[in-house]
Please model this.
Amino acid sequence: MSAGRGRLGGGALSSGGAPSSPVASSPVGARLADLEISRAWLVDPASEREGPGEIVVEDGILVAVTWLEGAEAVGIDATSVVVAPGLVDLHAHLREPGNEDAETVATGLAAAAHGGFTTVCAMPNTDPAADDPAVVVRMRDAAAASGSPVELLVHGAVTMARGGEQLARLGELADIGVVGFSDDGSPVRSATIFRNALTYAGMLGLPILDHPEDGSQTEGAEANEGLVATVLGLRGWPVAAEAVAVARDLAILAEVVREVAGARLHLTHVSTAASLDLVRRAKADGLPVTCDVTPHHLALSDEWVAGARRFAWAALASDGSARDPWRDEAIVAAPYDPSTRVNPPLRSAMDAAACRTALRDGTADAIATDHAPHTDVDKVVEFGLAANGISGIETALGLTLAAVDAGEFSLPTAIRALTSGPAAVLGGRTAARGLVEGAPADLVVFDRSATWRVDAEAFASKGKNTPLLGMELPGRVLLTVAGGRIAYEAPDA
Amino acid sequence: MNAAADPALAVPDDAAVPAESEATVIANPAPAGRWGHRHLLDVDVLSESDLDLVMRTADTMAGVLARPIPKVPTLRGWGITILFYEASTRTRVSFEVAAKNLSADVVNIAAASSSVSKGESLIDTVRTIEALGARMLVMRHATSGAPYLAAEHFSGSVLNGGDGWHAHPTQALLDLYTLRARLPGGSVRGKKIVILGDVLHSRVARSNLWSLTAAGADVWVCGPSTLLRGFETWSRAGVAGSRGFTVTSDLRAALRDADAVMALRIQRERMASGLLPSLREYAARFGLTRERLALAKPDALVMHPGPMNEGVEIAPDVASGAQSVIEDQVANGVAVRMALLYLLAGARE
Model:
């Protein structure tokens, strides 16, 4: 190993070479990665392989990936230091332009790197909305100025000002490289406009990312309809509101795709068993549909609104129904914590289980964070008046790994849903995820055996709005390398 | 407890009131019980013995109210702010009278006339109220759960005077007090009690479900199916630690052999939101009339949290009939609220 090269291995992180700094610092932007990780657990969705191995990165290029076998591999398992491709987030709210108090492109990308992400797709519900190329340019300028090596991709709006009436400048947005279109936050209410958008975007070869919600069923809705909402006196948010929208979208897709072969639909933050069943059937029918689930919808459930703080798999009875948090005496926090308010709402433990099943059987293509930072002014208010959303990009990997630890799905399934899965949804618009020799290093290194405490002060995001504050999550991120450069390095690494 | 023999109430330990000559200190009104709640936000946290303590303390307060001058110095020097974000007459006045009977210094804030209407946040409002010296905050808010937020930012006690659809703890407790006072045997245990009407939007219904089931009553909720949404699920889950309750739209089944019937107010906006065809149809199918009341036990009690729409959810002759205890509810409300202010003032947490 050469001097000046960072060295990780043996299930722990060690820094080698020149005093304290593992790599030579680069004068502009992030440093090129120059490191060697020995005796780690590699997870490579490209080769569908996981196992003991070593990697070497020189001048930002992944020059060697070595799989260890036999005696060399003894003592290395999936609980040691894990090396995986850089994570891809299909769905994050970076709030710039327009709401820089809540987040900026710079803080959002820093938060992404802290969470292990090397590619982030910014949603277009900025102010003004990304319905015009100028807004996209501005976001990219902010990313460039931040010096972050994390790749910023942008979804354009479907309609002008996300108003649901007039199509946004879809062609111009496509020309400057948006990766999809979405009116996320508000669904495209008019089925006709939705159909037109799907048809036009199909011509451009881009997907529509729909937020499936039938607004006529969710006016004033506050929490998932069910026992918790009824007991707490919160306006119910029916499962049917999502399923109706998904069914509509799929019915329209089935017709559009007969004439526009390029039409593609991506359903984002699908949160219910009913919706996932519809997607499963549509995929079986060969429709060009993909979908994602969020870490919070697969790991938390609506009882968190009542003050329970156990993972969704622990809230499931042996017969598959949701347990009663009051009967279980599982209420440990005050009810109505506005940090548990999100759209779609935290669902029942059964729906959360369906999200995990969908990841196992491939119905869900990706885990997307729906990172939604908010200021305290908008969030720390009465539950019924609080903005929807969870600041989630820094806890996404930890929540997902908590599900892996609980045996809900495998580590490769988790990594695939965070890397190659979302990359495939983006087509060729981000680098394919894999541990491929000769390519710029794009990877995350995390310690499976180390838990970490979710701490608002340690968040790079301006948004501290998460019900996970104070909890211990598995999988501390040690290092994030994006496009060959160091995007994040744990302080003690 | 014989309150007449005990001319005044114990002052909570830290109340800045020396015992005065005319205010002979009595023993704690409930020596056997201990009150462990700093706030009263919901009835779901109250155990059966808590409920019992409230009832016995309210008995003592009823004794105070029976005096020629119904006033004791118990909370002299205590600042109590009554902050109502929703219009209310009876609950607000009931709290005010209760606090004044305990000699507290009462400040009333109606949200419409304060900086609240200028967009001041609830947290700022609560901090301001505390800075102005209040040690107790009685609040009503249109949003379910708002008192929990207030409680997090207030160093004194918060007493929920009704939040959204969620809870109205003092109403449930005064209802329980009224039932215990008027039912044969002085207990609701095993008694069939019907909550009739707009259960979906009712904080009174939710709070009564907790307290009545905790006290062992056989609770039935009844109304049009659109106004029972979610309650069948709740009833299947049961209420933790209790025997559950029955949900039905069959009014005759609900009323048959009932020991008490609690009618809930129907709001006009339920028609606009498509939950009911018309008030007239509601009255025809679910109004509590004399004929229907006859299905219940002969001496069944008739209750209503007010304000009433006479001729809609309750017929005028039922509301003012011999079985009606609606006025008792109002009078008992003062005693129960005095009891709660007293218990919260002495709470240690």
